[in-house]
Write a structure and sequence with these properties.
It contains 7 helices and 13 strands. By secondary structure, the protein is of the alpha/beta class. It has a single domain, classed as Rossmann fold (3-Layer(aba) Sandwich). β1 (46-52), α3 and β2 (73-79) form a beta-alpha-beta unit. The longest helix has 18 residues, at 24-41. It is globular and about 50 Å long. Bound molecules: zinc ion. Zinc ion binds at residues 131-132, 198, 242.
């Protein structure tokens, strides 16, 4: 079914109704045009391309939350797998950061994966993996290397030489989250908070991630947010964010906003 409702946006730069059903090519053209306009009229905005697809979510509330993050951001939307061609070197010229909120499980060809990996590893564009993204591409046993962790879809899946228990999830839990113990300064301000959200249990998380937020909640993977070195990039991963109950949490919003700003400050253009 064709989707009719577009996201609502605070700024006038992007017409989301047009982007909603845009092809990858027209999306790129639109973004290029908008970036020219914005250079002429105002201070450069942080251009974030959001990927969805493969999992339903509270779309209007998600868009409202992004808009509420502030005028400094300009969000565009693409959907996987149909807009997969965007995931290639060159996208960093159009966008400052990518926010993956998809759960795309349509297999990628080796060529597509190579282009995708080259883009993400370049360090020239911020990379943020949010919630469902940790369940993307179970067909690629080493897809966890992209984010430093993964939801485990099959009992006894072998990761890093060990068999892992099957993942589990639970909706509408009250979850207490706190900043992880970090050597030195955190990359951006972190706070303790309580959120109504979905928990993931038995996620596999690399011992090499730098945890940012953790939880002691039972039946839940302790690492809630982390950074992970991927080639020349330091990607950001946040396991929370299932639905509008999470989106409306002010601390959840602050993490997204601070995280996106941090990613963009770190990109090497
Ligand atoms: Zn979810």
């Amino acid at each position: 079914m064709k989707r009719k409702i577009g996201w609502r946006w605070g700024g006038a730069l992007l017409v989301l109704g047009a982007i909603w059903s845009a092809t990858a090519a027209s999306l790129m053209a639109q973004a290029a045009e908008n970036s020219i306009k914005s250079e002429k009229t105002e201070a450069a905005k942080i251009r974030v391309l959001v990927f969805d697809g493969g999992h339903p979510y509270d779309e209007p509330e998600f868009a409202e939350m992004l808009t509420a993050l502030g005028d400094e951001f300009e969000f565009s939307r693409a959907t996987l797998p149909q807009d997969r061609a965007l995931l290639a070197p060159g996208l960093e010229k159009k966008f400052d950061a990518l926010l993956f909120y998809d759960m795309c499980q349509t297999p990628m060809s080796d060529e597509e994966f190579a282009r995708y990996e080259t883009l993400l590893k370049s360090g020239k564009i911020g990379v943020f993996f949010l919630h469902h993204r940790l369940s993307a591409h179970p067909e690629r046993p080493d897809f966890w290397k992209i984010a430093g962790g993964t939801y485990v879809f099959e009992q006894n899946r072998e990761i890093e030489g060990k068999r892992r228990p099957l993942g589990a999830y639970e909706h509408d839990r009250e979850i207490d989250v706190k900043p992880a113990r970090i050597d030195g300064e955190p990359p951006f301000p972190l706070e303790a908070f309580t959120i109504i959200d979905e928990s993931y249990e038995n996620m596999w998380v690399s011992p090499n991630v730098k945890a940012l937020l953790t939880t002691d909640a039972p039946r839940m993977t302790p690492q809630v947010a982390w950074t992970w070195t991927l080639g020349d990039a330091e990607v950001l991963v946040f396991a929370l964010g299932h639905d509008k109950k999470a989106y409306e949490n002010p601390a959840f919003r602050r993490f997204l906003k601070n995280g996106l700003n941090w990613l963009v400050e770190n990109v090497k253009k």
